[in-house]
Amino acid sequence: MNKTQSKTKIFFKYFWSTFKESKFLLLKYVAVAFLYSIISILANLLNVKELTYLNAFLSLYAFASIIAFGIGNAISVFMNQNISSKFKVRKYAKIGFEINIIFSFIVTALLVLFPRFFMETLMGYNPESYTFYYIMCGYFFLSCTSSYLVETMKCLKFFKQQFVCEITPLIITILGFLILYFCGIYYLNYIAIAYILGTVFSMTFSIILLMKNKEISVNFFKLQTINLTKRQWWILLSNLAVEFIWQIGYYATSMILIRFSDGIFNTYSYLENVLDVFNGFLFAFSSVSAIRITRCLGRNQFDKAYTYAKQSIVASILIWCFYFVASMALIYPIALGVNREYFSLMFMVMPCYVAIHFFRFIAWNMGSYMLRLGGKNTIFVIIEFFCSVILVSMCFIVQFLPVSVPLAYLIILIPTLLFLPVYFIIFKRKKWLCNINEDPNLISNQVKVTIFDFRDTLVWDMKKDNHREMNLQWFNEHFSYMSERERAKLLKKYGCGPNGEGLSSQINEILFDIEGNNNSYLIFREFTETNENYIRGKHISNKELEKFKKLGKIYIVSNWKEKDLQRAVDYNEFDRNLFAGIISNNISKKENLDKYKIYKKIMKDNNLKANQILVVGNNFKHDLRSAKKLGMHYYLVKDGFTYDEIMT
User: Fold this and answer.
1) Is the distance from CB of 556 to CB of 581 less than 8 angstroms?
2) pLDDT value of residue 509
3) CB within 10 Å: which end of the chain, N or C, has fewer?
4) Chain mean position to CA 179
5) Are 84 and 121 in contact (CB under 8 A)?
6) 264 plus 366 within the same structural domain
7) What are 337-352's pLDDT values in tens digits?
8) CA atoms of 4 and 9, how far apart (whole Å)
9) 456 and 468 share one domain
10) What torsion do the CA atoms of 563, 568, 574, 577 make, to the nearest 10 degrees?
11) How many CB atoms are closer than 10 A to CB 62?
């Protein structure tokens, strides 16, 4: 009994905390639905012919949503499974932005190049002028970009900012409509400009908010190399494929209902628009849940992720109960006031419409976890494909069936009922509980040994340029009994510069000629070689090196002399326990080992393949060329690096 009460308490704690976190998403869905209603009313002030043209082209806006939503969901997985690394989050946000622009540009180019095909062949509309069409092509491109930025905010849980950026373009569009209407120039071309202005404002707000945000600060103007693994490309492209296939199924659903009867279709469309606010409650809740689950997957907290997923599915049933009661209470009075002709039909359509959402809510939840969070997308693409094939096939069958509301809704529910058991089995088997960072294509999952150069790689800015200053300092102190002029003449006599240039190579000869022995030279060498300021500098922290240690063994291979290298490791406070070996290839003047041989020996000693070793250095010729010859991973650095920087 106590255990049951405890589980119930945990569930409701999760339920209310999730709704509390998604409050701005809920507010957004209500506000957007309200503002879209106003835009629809204002658009209806156009004459019928122009309104048809406007609606015909705005139907293509669905493709903007496909691109932004598909790419946004894929990028959400990459970002939220790496949320602890700002570097990776920024990287994936920018990669998604650039991929989104590429896809949007291709689709926009096709729209511009083949206007008659899209308008006349596909939509059956023959406009007198294509000026409006071309302006709206620009709107389409901007909408794709703006929608992706808004999706990025949702991925990062910037719900307040997302609310502002989604409401802004709608308000500006409404203001544009009103200004045009009261000025008496209510033409399509100007309305297209109103849409564009709203979208431009949204884009500007989005970019500024994301750039200025302290948590992430994404600079979209700085290009990012698009470097994704095969698995990541599949996650992204399969997301796009599912959105496209789903859209086909959605249009097929409309065609099925139209062929049953205009009344069934019109009441269905009416409910779609009016009840979309209630769907928003589910989407808001699911969005927060999905982000939580994705972040758990990124930390390998699979049990916690599965618990959240189960709680989210139970919560979706509770949301449906609210949806059922609220819709029944509100829709009938609204229907009576809006269209008395369909009011009697609504008594049959309404229960059927709400009933099918019971199964859809559960299917959407289970499907979203497999598709968007774990990256196991193949089965979902197959399911969506067959769902759309079934719905398209039904378009040709329904014309031979009797007109019946329950039958119509049963037919559009068939794919969901058919594949819901499949969703359930996959969900229970937990195969979707995986971390994308375990992808075998990632370098971090291949590397077992990391080899670092030392000078200017692990340690840099060691004041080696000031070495001659130390030589000159010792020279001036040692010959302090001479005047400054005499010391200057002495340097010039032996070919040294006034600032100590060349003194290191000539000091032995100077001391021998003046003092008759080289005893002082030993003192000189001890002073310069043990001077901490020379071998100490800025360095990589032990904490950062521990991240490489988790991959396997770490080695230092340096051209420095053995004595200097060992001293420098201690002076820079490196933890020797981190390293499997600290190797100098500068053994003596007679024997100077090639790094190629050392790398090969490390590979042989550890019984590894070349692609299981990573070499990090600051000099391609001395550090990395040998690694490249052997087929190892290699990375060129300058003045410091991080684990995330190298691994991505």
Assistant:
1) yes
2) 84
3) N
4) 39
5) no
6) yes
7) 455 666 677 777 888 8
8) 9
9) no
10) 0
11) 13
